[in-house]
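Follow-up to my earlier ticket, as requested here are the two runs.
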Amino acid sequence: MKRRNYLGGIALLLLGAFFGAVLITGFSNSRPGYDEVKIGSNNPPIQNVNVDAQAFNNAFVEVADKVTKSIVQITVVSRSEAKEEIPEQFRFFFPFRDESPKERMGSGSGVIISEDGYILTNNHVVENATDVRVGMLDKREYKATVVGTDPLTDLAVIKIEAKDLPAAYLGNSDDVKVGQWVMAIGNPMSLASTVTAGIVSATSRSLNIIRDKDGYAIEDFIQTDAAINPGNSGGALVDLTGSVIGINSAIATNGMTGSYIGYGFAIPINIAKSVAKDLIAEGKVRRGYIGVQISEVDASTAKAVGLDSPKGIMVQSVVEDGAASITDIKPGDIILKIDGREVNRPNELQGYVASKRAGHKIELDVFRDGKTFKRDVILKARDKEDDVEVKPTSSKEKSKSKDEMKEIKFENIGFTVRNLTEQEMKNIKVDNGVIITEVKSYSEAFNKRLSSGLVIVEVDKKKIDSVSKLEEIFEEKKGDAVLLKVVAKDEVTRFVGLEISK
């Protein structure tokens, strides 16, 4: 009996232990109530944000809130005239190929610039458009008409029938500084109202992506590292006051994806304002021109003309009957300033002039023959671009003393020259000079873009009649620099600064 009670007690203990374990396990796997769940720390790492940091952050928030109302999304249906080219040997396999123009859809951005519906965007956004639609931040949609375009600056104005729109404030791009904070606002990848931030990385950038048939360009881009992608075109680049300082236009890309890889480029708003006013008022741009062909001044050129450092813009040639020719601007002059602003790159000068209309007066600071003087120039229009001629700057007096046919190689410069024949002078339309017959790769001459076929007509403003005269001057100028005046077969004249090594 005792044995049976003993075994029963052990069994009860084991059973109790089993059920206890089950109960404990069951409770440990139970979920807490929703209100009992606690996640994250109870306090932020920084409880008192620096006042300046908070103000800086708020500046971005306020600009985004205010300016996005003035940015629209533009959807365009355009007609493409490009036809698919099929090699002749394969055309048999495509007898019914449709060669009619194709329609395609694209999108971009725009900036509202007036309360009654004028919108500024890029020319490439609305080019060849057959249908243009505008979407507002508040979801309203409008059909738009193209008021005018300006391919040379990649700008366009469109119009919607609406009133009391939130027009953007257009600032002053002349005040833009490298390093200042900016925001890009637009609709990249059709993602409406996207805001990115960065700094101004550079100003007066030339990308060589816009040229007219004469090779003339107006490229004075503001460069930024604020992310800009396809669809941002025509959107706004703004500063921390909410002022629009540029119209986003281009991006640096690897050429494969077409997407942002680090830098974007915007058209300065001062140029955009001038173009927009002309397009709205007249449907075309009445842009002013100085009437010169210009180039940058390098160290050799500066040394050759007597400048203390490489600065300014050299006038290579003057357009006949242009504004500059009327105002005593000559080939070889160095333009140091325009309206008191220093200019050291051609696009800086072109960008500033592009913001002025024909008839506007500008003041130039000019360096010539060791002296600096001022000239007032009244800008002229260039309506008949096909009739523009470059004024020949070759001598009108024939040389009276000619060497016999002779050729000399200048090893220290890297080119070979010989005297011109009478027939060559007629063909090239010069009255004197020597012709370059060979240029050594990577030499001083090569680096200055001298090439065979160019005619040297002057050195340091002295006429060159023969290779012996050229040799004589080069001997005198060893260890110094000279300024060559060269003429190409198409009569285009330019100046080249050249170092003459000992």
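Run two:
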Amino acid sequence: MGMLVVVTEAVPPRLRGRLAVWLLEIRAGVYVGDVSRRIREMIWEQITVLSEDGNVAMAWSAPNESGFDFQTFGENRRIPVDYDGLRLVSFLLSEKTAL
């Protein structure tokens, strides 16, 4: 078992309802829970199927240097990158900022 955090943005109510079955919604679109790897992978499968045009970030405790791992789904300006074995986040400039 391990801590899991899921943050959603602009996802359909159906996905939010599914997440609420396994996790506690502590703020609008922010879910936490203590789940097994199998349940975490099943939750991710639901996220990839039901997110539509929304986006999701999921983070969980992991036995690595940072103590956690994460993945994202959907379009967002924050993009996960691997930097010499360390997972970081790159921030893309918006079209407005680039002008």
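The only thing I checked on run two: The longest helix spans residues 37-50. Let me know what else you need.
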